[in-house]
Amino acid sequence: MSEIDDLKKLLHYHNHRYYVLDDPEISDGEYDSLFNKLLTLEQRDPSLITPDSPTQRVGAKTSEKFKKVEHRKRMLSLSNAMNVDELRQFDSRIKKDLNIIDSDLEYIVEPKLDGFSVEAVYENNVFVLGSTRGDGNVGEDITNNLKTVRSIPLSLPNILFTPLEVRGEVVMEKKEFEELNLMRENLGEQLFANPRNSAAGSIRQLDPKITASRKLKAYFYGLGITVNKSFKTQEDILTYINNSGFKITEFKKCRDIEEVIKECKRLENLRNDFMFEIDGTVVKVNDLSKQNALGERSRSPRWAIAYKFTPQEATTRIVNIVLQVGRTGVVTPVAVLEPVNISGVEVRRATLHNIDEILKKDIRIGDTVIIHRAGDVIPKIIKVVLSIRTGDEKQFKMPKNCPVCDSKIVRVEDESAYRCLNIRCPSVIKEKIKHFVSRRAMNIEGLGDKLVEQMVDNKIIKDFSDIYTLTIEKIKTLERSGDKSSANLLNAIKSSKEQDLQRLVYGLGIRHIGETISKSLVNVYKDISLFENANKDDLTKIKDIGNEAADSIISFFSNKQNLEVISQMQKAGVKMCMETTGGEGLLQGKRFAFTGTLSLFSRVLARDTVEDLGGITVSSVSKNLDFLVAGDQPGSKFKIAEKLGIKIINEDKFKELVQL
DNA sequence: TAGCCTCGAGTTCA
DNA sequence: CTCGAGGCTA
Q1: Pairwise CA distance, residues A156 & A170, whole Å
Q2: Which letter, b or e, does each residue of A336-345 get, where b requires 16 or more Cβ atoms within 10 Å of its Cβ?
Q3: Distance CA A499, CA A519 (A)
Q4: How far is the CA of A263 from the C1' of B14 (A)?
Q5: Which residue's C-alpha is at the least distance from the C1' of B12?
Q6: Cβ atoms of A349 and A336 closer than 8 Å
Q7: Residue A86 burial (CB count, 10 A)
Q8: Cβ within 8 Å of residue A282, ≥6 positions away
Q9: C-alpha angle A48/A50/A55, rounded to 5°?
Q10: Are strands A364-365 and A394-395 parallel, antiparallel or unpaired?
Q11: Out of A289, A343, A362, A513, which residue is the most buried by the measure of CB atoms under 10 Å away?
């Protein structure tokens, strides 16, 4: 056998290890050197180049449009089940059609990839044709582009039958998609709305070089025409496809429809853990003879159904853009949306962050937009659907004055935010007070957002100190404040006077000073009066305090009004010094993070427990972490911790550790 | 000075 | 949760 053939075999093998099994045996460098060796040999005698050679993945640009390709067997789509009931209906309908009365029907459940459907045809072992689904009958010839997808084998190890037609989905992994969009953003190019569009756009490129650069993956799930009759089940087919060198997704064989439902729910919960987008599951009757008996409708088979996850993406219209003024005076534009249901909640508003964001995405009032709720909860506007623009949309301009107090708003150099600098701005006052009374600061229960707003509007309070001069008469002038609730509120205010100093310092809302720095500050300056004399040198010696934070502290404590408010609070009996703490704790200096649902502790209790014992709690995992406490259904932190070799403990272990 | 880590700040709905 | 930026470290 020639050296060229050996090299090709070797490269195919290592390509498969790398791109299909994700388990390379040799380094990238070694692969490249084998590849270059083959390239040299082929260049010496180009007549030896075969179409399945690894050097032929990226072909020449096709100038004309894609050629049409007729599918020998129609590529169908799937009917949808929008909920669990529709899955059960599907099951009973099939059983009726098959005359199955008192027995169960076996199904295969696979994740449904949100990508681009393709077919790859192999003749005598060699990849000869790649096509899109098109309308199901006729697709487009994308052979050259599919060849660039490294997880698709160019030749197969052994022939079971020929031709072999495999069907699957080309996807772009989420990470890849984000990187691509980031790059396009830097180049000022139009962004892709989601990984599916991105995969579709990449596969329909006339220049295979572009497709090759997109790092697409392909997963296969079925066959086209099948001359071979040895397959009995869908499971056989998946196993065969996989053994022939294709990537397949995980799948599960289910005894009955209830197990199918369980599996669908499981995958739905895990959807964010997949590297690629999945928008549902595909449920197929496992037995091929039963599939045949059921047959197909005009556009979809009767033996399969797609179970759709509750969507995390939706289209809606921007009714208006309004402005919010936060506690730091930042003026934030917020889109008011036509209410739309995404993953079970009605979304009406979405932040637009700042004017740069609006201009970058070219968002206008009246635009139709795609909004998204990923693993998190916060809706995000992904992009404007430009194709439905009527021309009646209104561009949004930042006003010159604060929408609340009408004073001039300014944009600090190099910042995208506009700020209202009026310290008497009612909105700023309200937000500052809400922050002061919030759970993590002074924790005054019963003083919620609505009440604070009323109090400021009615001029009952104008700064923190006024909270401590409230009387039952004043509170009762407000809506929905009776004897009982007013008394409760006064009690809560009274007990807040004893809060730790660090909570007070945090509650003051000094720029750049959050919970952590408040704590470090309080450890050094144990009495509020000492803060006034703090100098920059001393401050910057404290961990995490640099130039900006130090300046911010000094400027806060040299402001007369601030000092006046503090002194008023002191007169009202608010504790202004730190209690001496009793020595070293059990967990002194140990860093903890939590993930998943805890059952023995609430998050707050777990946090307080650690901190009472001198430990530190953090919200993200890094190599400095000492313990990750994992509850039920841990999130991404779990994987990161595993990778970094962080000690992961369960709740029971944690309980032992804190000796409760 | 670059790159990593952490902290702060803003954010939606039930 | 996520982003941006301040601060720390090599």
Answers
A1: 19
A2: ebeebebeee
A3: 13
A4: 28
A5: A378
A6: yes
A7: 15
A8: A78, A109, A110, A111, A112, A221, A304, A305, A306, A307
A9: 100
A10: antiparallel
A11: A513
pTM for the predicted model, two decimal places? 0.62
Integer Cα distance of A318 and A365 in angstroms? 6
Q: Rounded to an integer, what distance in angstroms lies between the CA atom of residue A390 and that of residue A659?
A: 66
Q: What are the beta bridge partners of residue A130?
A: A120
Whether A498 sits with its Cβ under 7 A from any strand C atom: the answer reads no
CA separation for the pair A369, A363 (Å, rounded): 8
- Are the beta carbons of A118 and A211 closer than 8 angstroms? no
Give distance CA A136 / C1' C4 (Å): 47
Specify which residue's alpha carbon is closest to the C1' of nucleotide C2. Answer: A376
pLDDT in tens, A609-624: 777 777 777 777 777 7
How far is the C-alpha of A121 from the C-alpha of A147, rounded, in Å?
Answer: 11
Residue A397: both structure tokens together: 């301009």
Most confident of A14-28, A281-295, A638-652: A281-295
Instruction: Using the structure block, give the residue that is written with the tokens 């009615």.
Output: A458
Is position A253 annotated as part of the catalytic site?
Answer: no
How far lies A507's CA from each of A374, A467, A612, in Å? 31, 13, 20
Task: Give residue A63's pLDDT band: very low, low, confident or very high (50, 70, 90).
Answer: low
Structure tokens at A374: 């990923």
| Rounded distance between C-alpha atoms, residue A459 and residue A469, angstroms | 13
DSSP 8-state assignment for residue A66: P
Q: Give burial (CB, 10 Å; 0-12/13-18/19+) of A90.
A: buried
Instruction: Count Cα neighbours of A223 within 13 Å in the Cβ-side half-sphere.
Output: 24
Question: Could you check: is the Cβ of residue A544 within 7 Å of any atom of nucleic acid strand C?
Answer: yes
Longest dimension (CA), chain A: 100
Exposure string for A413-451, b = 16+ CB within 10 A, e = fewer:
eeeebbbbebeebbbbbbbbbbbbbbeebbebebbeeeb
